[in-house]
Structures are given as structure tokens and as C-alpha cells.
Amino acid sequence: MKKFFFFSLVIILLSAGVTGYWHISHRTEQKHSTTITFLDIGQGDATFIEFSDGQQMLVDCAIDARILEALGRVMPFYDFTLDYLVITHPDLDHYGGCVDVLKKLHVRHIVYSGLREEDSGYWNEFWFAIEKEKAMYHQMEEQQEWMVGDATLHFLYPDHSIPDNPHIPGHAGAMDKNNTSIVFVVDAYGIRTMLTGDMEEPLEKYLIETASAYLAAHILKAGHHGSGSSSSQSFLNLVQPEETVISAGENNPFHHPNERVLRRLKRMDARIWRTDRQGDILLTIEKGGMYVLSAKKR
């Protein structure tokens, strides 16, 4: 009986060792592809990126703890580490689930604009969770490039300190936190994907003036859930997307996406993918090109 117990214990320990080794290999192995999953989380935003070296990035966190169920569709059950968390701006449908992410996962890097909303109890809870995490904090306040795996990340906005001045430079209109969104392009194997947060037309115009050389993209995540205040014709003329992803909730009260925006995209022959109709949208980028799959077809 003792011999059987000892033999069983050895098998369990060996299995644990093999599993642990596989986990490490999974996160460091060069796999020569980058995957971007636009998660179906209802009305809101959450995009999960896995780079060629196994590093992972979450861009926005949905409105609440539903983000954890969504991450369960793309992360192994034993993986409790997230390399990068990017919060584009403090709208609840983008950052509401970040507290849950920070409680559940060990986050190594946090990227944020620095916009403070100290009159909001929930924002204060969010900021406390960031401080408690002790991750490396990056406040985006200039255009810059990062290398992650085989991908280059071009951060286009903010290009100045948002806490000091939340307005778009040179723009006389009222401050709109949608236009404090972190906007960046992921360039993997020459395939460019633009992530826009809730960017609206005034910020689009600013980027046309200041970053036009970086705006061409094969895949566009439409700003502000396909709202009529975003995806202007002049902006789309520069981006020239082949594929456009719209993150929106089914039968949402804001009527996203806007019909005019859909017509603009169709006139440009851009294929349209919608999380409200097709569920999770998976983009796989390899050296030979890219392909897009959806969880369900309608």
C-alpha cells in the first residue's frame, strides 16, 4: 500500500513538473504569428493580443467582471499573468472590468493616459487597484515605438501630458475624454492593425495633421463602437482599411454602429466584422499574410 502511494506521488510530482515546464515554454516560445482577438463583451471594448513570443496584452476591460469570462476563452486556465494592460481612457465600458482583471491576474505593465477622475468613486477604486498592483506604469504622453515579439507598436496619441492638458492641442472645443484615448498601431509582419479607443472626428483630424505617415492600416478597429461621431471620410481615406472591426453590444441603446459609418466603409470595400453579430473576432497575422475568423456567423 505504501509503495503504491509513493509511486502515485512520484507520478503526480512528475506531472506537475512537466506541466510547469510546458507553461514556461508556452509563454516564451517563438511561434511566428501574432493573434488579436476582439472580444464579444457586449457594449464596450476589450481586445486581447498574443505576440509571437507569447507575451500578452489586454486593451480595455469591458464594463465589469464579464471580462474574466471573455479572457477565459483566450487564456489557458492556469495562466494568471498578463504582460500588458492598456486602458485607452476612463469610460466605464472600457475600464469598468479593469479592477477585476487586476484582482485576478498579475499584471507586469500598465499603460494609461493619466486622465484623473477623482470625483468618481469607481475611478478611485480603479486607481487604488493600479497602485496596489505595483506594475511598471507607463503614462503615454508622446509618440513612441515599442517592440514586442515580432511586432512594432506605434503609439500615436496622446502626444502630450493629458493630466496637464486634456484637450487636443490647437482644438478650441470642450474637453471630451473620448478624445484622450490612447491610439496605436500594431505592425506585425507588415500587417498593420489600428486600435482607436473611443477616438472621435476632432482627434482623427489632429492625427491627420500630426501622424499621417502612420495612419494606413490593413485592419481598423472603428472608433467609438462605430458611432457617427467617428470614422470620418477624410480619416478613412488615409487609413484605407481592408477589414474593419466594430465592438458593440447587440441591440444597444446607442444604435451603434451608425448606418452612415457602415455605408462609408462599404463604399471603400472594407469588410465589416461586428462583435454584436459575430461574437469574438480572431485575427491571425503570420509572415505569409493574415486571416480573420469569427465565433459565429449571421
CATH class of the largest domain: Alpha Beta
In the CATH classification, which architecture of the largest domain applies? 4-Layer Sandwich
Report the radius of gyration as a whole number of Å. 20 Å
Strand content: 25-35%
According to CATH, what is the topology of the largest domain? Metallo-beta-lactamase, Chain A
Shape: globular
Content-based structural category: alpha/beta
Most strands sheet:
8 strands, mixed
Count the beta strands.
Answer: 15
State the order of secondary-structure elements, H for helix, E for strand: HEEEHEHHEHEEEEEHEHEHEHEE
Low-confidence stretches: 1-28
Count of DSSP H/I helices: 9
**What is the total domain count?**
2
Q: Kindly state the percentage of residues in helix.
A: 25-40%
Strand order of the largest sheet: 6-5-4-3-2-1-14-15
| CATH-level-4 superfamily name of the largest domain | Ribonuclease Z/Hydroxyacylglutathione hydrolase-like
What's the average pLDDT? 90
Describe the structure.
With 298 residues, the protein is an alpha/beta fold. The chain is 29% helix and 26% strand. Mean pLDDT is 90; it is low at 1-28. The protein has nine helices and 15 strands. It has helices at 2-28, 66-71, 92-95, 98-104, 121-133, 201-210, 233-239, 259-267, 275-278, and strands at 33-38, 47-50, 56-59, 81-87, 106-112, 136-139, 144-148, 151-157, 183-188, 191-195, 219-221, 243-246, 271-274, 281-286, 289-294. It has an eight-stranded mixed β-sheet with strand order 6-5-4-3-2-1-14-15, covered by helices on one side. α4 runs parallel beside α5. It has two domains: 1-29; 31-294, Ribonuclease Z/Hydroxyacylglutathione hydrolase-like (Metallo-beta-lactamase, Chain A, 4-Layer Sandwich).
